[in-house]
Design brief:
Distance between the termini: 5 Å
Largest sheet: none
Strand content: under 5%
Number of strands: 0
Order of helices and strands: HHHHHHHHHHHHHHHH
Structural class: mainly alpha
Helix content: 40-55%
Mean pLDDT: 86
Low-confidence stretches: 318-329, 338-348
Radius of gyration: 33 Å
Number of helices: 16
Shape: extended
Length: 348
């Protein structure tokens, strides 16, 4: 009788198919996991109590307005006048003309449209001031003025702040209108910690949306100086780094590399160019097995045989000449075809 071919990968002489002949004892998996969790939790809490958290303290508006009140006032004035980086960023925050990064007809930033509309004057300045128990009368004077008048007020106060080299706000003048009073109230609100809560509460019932707060902080020089001190800016390989002594994202070295060299570092559309380059390299890597010439590089430069030299030595495979993999594969295929073409019958 002809033996039917086996449909299982296990052979009768395979070690995995033999019954266990050694000693057997009970093992409580739940007990082991519980003990491991308790021990690790106790060690973690103990070390945290002794050394504290390794994370850097959060950057708050209270710290910003206290440590650098002039920079906070200048940033708030730019938000009020619509001249900050966020106010002129373009999609997804606003539709500022010519703000997006383009490369010929490619404009990826505009594909999303204005999905998160942000009026910097209303969101960052007027809105928080209106949450106060008694909103400053300067807010009503500001909102009732024309856009041209508002621009003259903010421009005059911005020039006064730029000329201020001290640590306190300049004395207000009539040419600045209600802007100094509004900025002074917002600074006092920030120092008390109320501005953080007012911005976080704009996202709905749960104060978890920190988008507006991060954008406001990012528009100021204070936050950028902190980032530079931690080596987190783009020209400091910041994409790979982390705050404190925490290891960074080393796998982003190639993405960050282009920001360090010319001509990429000085391009006005460097973000778009780098994204397109990385997309092309990723696509090239994904299609590598299908690209003639590139896929045969391991046969010409057999570095894998050096890495797996113990395996090739144990199996007796040749590692001398390029193309050995192809020759070995052709020989194995020929042997397989010969076996398939030879009639064989196993009689029980």
């Amino acid at each position: 009788m002809t033996r039917r071919p086996s449909m299982t990968w296990k052979a009768g002489h395979d070690l995995a198919s033999r019954p266990w002949q050694g000693r057997v004892r009970d093992y409580d998996l739940f007990k082991e996991v519980l003990i491991g969790f308790v021990v690790v939790a106790a060690v973690t809490l103990g070390l945290a109590g002794v050394f504290g958290s390794p994370d850097e303290p959060p950057v708050t508006f209270a710290a910003w307005s206290s440590n650098d009140p002039v920079d906070f006032a200048a940033t708030a004035t730019a938000e009020l006048g619509g001249t900050s980086a966020t106010a002129q960023y373009g999609p997804p925050y606003n539709d500022t003309h010519g703000a997006t990064q383009t490369l010929g007809p490619i404009d990826l930033q505009s594909l999303s449209g204005v999905r998160l509309p942000i009026d910097t004057a209303k969101v960052f300045v007027i809105g928080p001031l209106q949450t106060l128990t008694s909103a400053p009368s300067a807010v009503a004077r500001w909102t009732s003025a024309s856009a041209a008048q508002q621009a003259r007020w903010t421009d005059a106060y911005a020039k006064a702040l730029a000329a201020d080299t001290g640590h306190s706000l300049p004395r207000p003048t009539a040419a600045e209108g209600p802007v100094p009073a509004m900025i002074a109230s917002l600074s006092a609100m920030a120092r008390s910690g109320g501005l953080d809560g007012a911005l976080a509460g704009q996202g709905g019932f749960y104060p978890l949306n920190r988008t507006s707060a991060i954008l406001f902080l990012g528009d100021g020089q204070y936050f950028n100086d902190l980032a530079a001190h931690q080596h987190l800016t783009g020209d400091q390989w910041g994409m790979m780094n982390e705050t404190g002594n925490t290891p960074g994202q080393a796998w982003l070295w190639l993405f960050s590399f282009f920001y360090q060299i010319e001509p990429f570092a000085s391009l006005p559309n460097v973000d778009l160019v780098v994204v397109l380059i990385m997309a092309a390299l990723t696509l090239l890597l994904a299609l590598l097995p299908f690209i003639p010439g590139l896929r045969t590089i391991p046969r010409w430069i057999p570095l894998h045989r050096v890495i797996w030299r113990d395996y090739y030595r144990a199996t007796g495979a040749s590692s001398a000449s390029p193309g050995a993999d192809q020759a070995g594969g052709d020989q194995a295929a020929a042997s397989a075809r010969a076996r398939d073409e030879t009639p064989a019958a196993h009689v029980r």
